[in-house]
Amino acid sequence: MSCCVVNDKTISSVLNFWSNSCGNENRKILNDLDFKIGLDILSRQKYSNESQLVIIGQIILDENHKAFNCNYKVNYKIKKSENEKFYYFKNENYSNVFQCLKAIDYIQYQINVSHDSEESPAYKILNSIRKAIIKVQPQYLKAIWG
Fold first, then answer.
1. E-assigned strands of the chain?
2. For the chain, which terminal residue's Cβ has fewer other Cβ atoms within 10 angstroms, N or C?
3. Domain ranges in the chain?
4. CA distance 64 to 91
5. Each residue of 18-35: pLDDT tens digit?
6. DSSP structure string for 58-120
7. How far apart are CA 1 and CA 110, in angstroms?
8. Cα dihedral 58/64/69/71 (nearest 10)
9. What is the value of pTM for the model shown?
10. Cα separation of 115 and 76, whole Å?
11. Torsion region of 88: left, alpha or beta (phi above 0 gives left; psi -120 to 50 gives alpha)
12. Rounded to the nearest 5°, which phi and psi values hold at 39?
């Protein structure tokens, strides 16, 4: 399996699309993620100047860097120190829901290098984002249950 480093623009575009399309559902998703994964995103944001999207973006990028290092047996710099962040939020957005969902698939592919990758916080975050985006789409809302 090949792996590459995902750029900030792709991650920011996914996070912006999610934030703009899901509205009030975001708080519930973050609560669920904090509870299920133990990320504590909501309280971390209270005590720092970072937004929730920056914290989530950094988690995704860190996981991608770890996968890249594992796959190629290199030491691509994740961070110089614990306080330094490599993820910089950009005001990018996808205009198409399918482009956003494809980008989520792309990011998950880039972080999926081991048999337990699907248990990683980044993978779970992206799954939650995908589900939230799908659930607010008009076609999904109109679909018959069952």
1. none
2. C
3. 8-142
4. 21
5. 888 887 666 677 777 666
6. HHHHHHHHHHHHHHHT----S-SSTT-----------S-HHHHHHHHHHHHHHH--STTGGGS
7. 9
8. 170
9. 0.80
10. 21
11. beta
12. -80, -30
